[in-house]
Structure formats: C-alpha cells, structure tokens
Amino acid sequence: MEFLSDRLVLSPVEERDLAFYRRFLLNPALTRWLPVNEPCTEAEVRLHHTRRLGHWDRHGFGTWILRSVETGESVGYCGLEHVGDTSFVDLRYGLLKGAQGQGLALEAGRAVLSRGFRDLGLQRIYGASMHENIASVALLLALGMRLDAHFDLYGTNLFNASVDAKVFFKTL
Q1: Burial class of residue 65 in the structure, from the number of CB atoms within 10 Å of its CB (0-12 exposed, 13-18 middle, 19+ buried)
Q2: pLDDT in tens, 36-82
Q3: 72's torsion region: left (phi>0), alpha (psi -120 to 50) or beta?
Q4: Distance (Å, rounded) from C-alpha 161 to C-alpha 8?
Q5: What's the structural domain count of the chain?
Q6: CA–CA separation, 9 vs 64, rounded Å?
Q7: Which of 50, 74, 97, 114 has its CA 20 to 30 A from that of 103?
Q8: The CATH number of the domain where 65 resides is what?
Q9: CA distance 29 to 31
Q10: CA distance between the termini of the chain
Q11: Per DSSP, what are the bridge partners of residue 9?
C-alpha cells in the first residue's frame, strides 16, 4: 500500500506513527488550522491515531504518512477518509512547519486524489478548509476543487469543496 511521488514516500498510518502525530497535534501553530483549533491532549492524540488506524482496517484506505524520499523523515500526512458515517470521502492533509512552502502538499494531494479516483473508484472527493487558511484553500483550488453547497458536514464557516475525476485529471 506504500507508494512514491517525486519527493515523498506515502505509507499507510502504522503504530510507529504515533510519535509523528504527537509532533503535529501538540503543536499550536499547526493545530490552529484543524477543527480542534488548539493543541490536543495526549489522550486526544492517541485517539486520533487509533481512528486513523481503524479507518484503514474498516475501509482498506485512509491516511498516509508522508516521508521524505531523501531523508526518510516524516514531514506530514495526506489521505482520504469517510466523514463520520457518511458516504462523503474527503482529503485530509497537513505538513510540519519545515516542510511547508515547498509544494509537497500539492504533490501529495495529487498522488492521493489519483489513487482515490483510479484505484478506489471514487466518483467525487471532498475537501474543507478554514477560509483564513489561504494556503489550504489555494491547495484545494489547485487540485481542481470548487465550492460545493452539498458538502457542509463540518459547518458553513469553512470553505467546503469537491472535485470529480474528470475535472481533477485536467489539472495534471
């Protein structure tokens, strides 16, 4: 299930990735853009990690940890997960500070959406971001996503968007 992009190794979340989630979810500069909007507790980090593992077990897909091809270091995550118990599958992503601004989120997003459409046969993939997170909104737009009024499971205060395979593959 592991696969490569130009600069990243994308590996399904494993037990060993709890340390990565601690680095990410305990960091206030990173969690400010997540629905929690503040650093997680240790218990919340463990629960988040357990849920990522569980999604893989239940659905056969989920979130990948992004590792640098060059260094092997974990630099972020990107994946596709069901939103709660709905049929909506959305793109989830985040990068550690040192990996931001290098185009890695776009590279990972393209790789993961390609997997979702080609290998999983998804018809539409969704994404959401806080409007104030300009980089995240720009990423969703670069992946071909556009506002989608039917996708508001996270609340109307977000940029809720989606893309279908035909539109996405035109962006490559």
Answers
A1: buried
A2: 778 899 999 999 999 999 999 999 999 999 999 999 999 999 999 99
A3: left
A4: 25
A5: 1
A6: 9
A7: 50
A8: 3.40.630.30
A9: 6
A10: 22
A11: 4, 67
Please give the structure tokens belonging to residue 28.
Answer: 């206030």
The whole-model pTM stands at 0.94
Tokens of 46: 């463990």
Supply the pLDDT for residue 149.
82
What residue numbers bound the domain in which 165 lies?
3-170
- Rounded CA gap, 4 and 109, in Å? 12
Report whether 147 contacts 160 (CB < 8 A). Answer: yes
Q: Encoding tokens for residue 85?
A: 């118990």
166 residue type, one letter: K
CA distance 65 to 76: 6
